[in-house]
Amino acid sequence: MDARIIWTCKKCKFDNPMGSQNCNNCGCKLKTLDFGNDNVVARWVCPQCGGKNMFDNDTCFNCGFARSKSNCFLTTTVCSVLRYEDNCYALENLRKFRKDYLEPNKDGQDLLIEYKQISDIVVPKILSDKNKESVCEYVYKNFILPVNKLVDSQKHKEAVEKYREMVNYFETKYNEK
Ligand SMILES: [Zn+2]
Ligand SMILES: [Zn+2]
Question: How far apart are the CA of 123 and the centre of ligand 1, in A?
């Protein structure tokens, strides 16, 4: 189960899916999102109860669902910007890789901790990046697809390396290093 990410139109308060550039209700354009102040408009939707949570809350205000259980925020973000379904092959495959390989291994656990810290910072930046579609296309082609291929051919170590490269790419791109 993945948490979806939505942005709320400032004008009409309609909740829009992350991939849309214009409000699906009133048509006004998505402007740079303001994070970290009263105007926060991006939220994540709890997959368990549908509660809408502020971005920096790690657990659902309503049912306590831990966001970290809902997997890869970064890859989910990339795929939803590109309008891929939440149950698309790439995400399902990565979810399985995470559960079967990353979570039980020390190397993988370290990576997941780093990944979580980075995705908290980077996801809002992707959302407000006016070039987010091309950024996400690049990431999908150069990291997500190759990781999937490596996972498919059981090359787990190489898959972890590729995964790490993706995290590094985002860190560097958004100057968080
Ligand atoms: Zn609107
Ligand atoms: Zn909830």
Answer: 22
